[in-house]
Amino acid sequence: MALGPHSERSSRASRWELNREAFDRLLGALDPDREAASRRYEGLRRRLIDFFAWEGTDAPEELADETFNRLARRVSAGVSFEGSTPERFAFGIARLLLHEDLRARRAREAALRELPARDPRLQPSTPADQAQQRRLQQLDRCLDALPPDSRELIQRYYATDRDSLARTLGLSVNALRNRALRIRQQLSDCLSRHRDVR
Prior knowledge:
mainly alpha
């Protein structure tokens, strides 16, 4: 069974990364038999996705994968499931992630409420307003040109608590900051190119 996309989400700069060895340990904790472990993994992943979807999260599959990242990290650290099961442990992690996601959504909603309301039917009345509108349109175009993962990360970086975001992505705060700086540089380069062609 191949590693899922969540194995690539942790940066090399982060303190912990889901690799083949950690993934194999996770499967071994689910069941000593590889085929049975694979079936148990897939069943648990589907249940986690359903859980996050039922709770109304924006990215149930990503949160399910992040749950497995954190579960694998605990297995690698030698956690014992005595008196429990990996599934029960996974749902404990999932509930914590759900709270993190809720806090992040509330922060995004608060940030959106603070933005000034703009009626698209209204035309900017002054040259300064027109210049501001052009800059916003250019920024929108540059954001749209980013890969979806980068676009989501940079928007969440400025709209949510960064410690919480770093934990959700399985990154250190420094690794998150470095990734955001690289994306900001891409946006800056894109905006400069737009200015050059005017």
